[in-house]
């Protein structure tokens, strides 16, 4: 790992460790997906080994596998439909705690779990904070049927919402596309600047082939951000 990568990974670990302070005995906890959430799952595993009693719902099969190896008690939203807290990473966030998520391909489950939680806390390194969303491509989960027609309509309605850019099907292994845990595909939209995320979110929901998009609006209550200046907290206005 390069020195700069090691520093960023250290920031991610610091944010995750700060978030673990929010975990209390008996909590029903949503476990996020991705490189920063990985550190949080590791930290929860340490607490469980030390006797903490929690019930956790993973947001992806990768997180489920990780948590199982750490012997973290797991459940599902069918068994535990209401959660106290979900801690997850973000690909990008602004000062209103509007997020872009889905770089790891788990955006649908992540959004379902976050919505089922009383609180969502985001953990990230400082590089993920942006004045305006869009520097990270926006993932959009779509069904396989009518893919090209769906992509054309996403492009057209996004343009009406003031967003234009390259829209590509996410590649997987070899010549195959990336497939989500739900068996769907993802298109990544490089809009570069999303001036009105709420308008774009509404537009994307109008596309029949779109299952879900990676704009998480009004879901995160708190963000724990770690960087060269240390760890700081950001709260959503009005939360």
Automatic annotation (TrEMBL):
One GO MF annotation is: ribose-5-phosphate isomerase activity
Where does this protein hold substrate?
33-36, 88-91, 101-104, 128
Q: Report the Gene3D superfamilies cross-referenced here.
A: 3.30.70.260, 3.40.50.1360
Record InterPro entries: NagB/RpiA_transferase-like, Ribose-5P_isomerase, Ribose5P_isomerase_typA_subgr, Ribose5P_isomerase_type_A
Q: Could you say which residues form the signal peptide?
A: none
Quote the EC number.
5.3.1.6
The question of whether Isomerase is a record keyword is answered with yes
Question: Per its UniProt record, what Pfam families does this chain match?
Answer: Rib_5-P_isom_A (PF06026)
Q: Name one GO biological process term.
A: pentose-phosphate shunt, non-oxidative branch
Could you say which enzyme class this protein belongs to?
isomerase
The active site annotation covers 110
- Which keywords, in A-to-Z order, does the entry hold? Isomerase
Pathway participation: Carbohydrate degradation; pentose phosphate pathway; D-ribose 5-phosphate from D-ribulose 5-phosphate (non-oxidative stage): step 1/1
Which reaction is recorded as catalysed by this protein? Answer: aldehydo-D-ribose 5-phosphate = D-ribulose 5-phosphate
| PANTHER family cross-referenced by the UniProt entry | RIBOSE-5-PHOSPHATE ISOMERASE 3, CHLOROPLASTIC-RELATED
In the record, the note on similarity to other proteins reads: Belongs to the ribose 5-phosphate isomerase family.
Function statement: Catalyzes the reversible conversion of ribose-5-phosphate to ribulose 5-phosphate.
Subunit details: Homodimer.
Q: What is this protein called?
A: Ribose-5-phosphate isomerase A
- Report the source organism: Methyloceanibacter marginalis
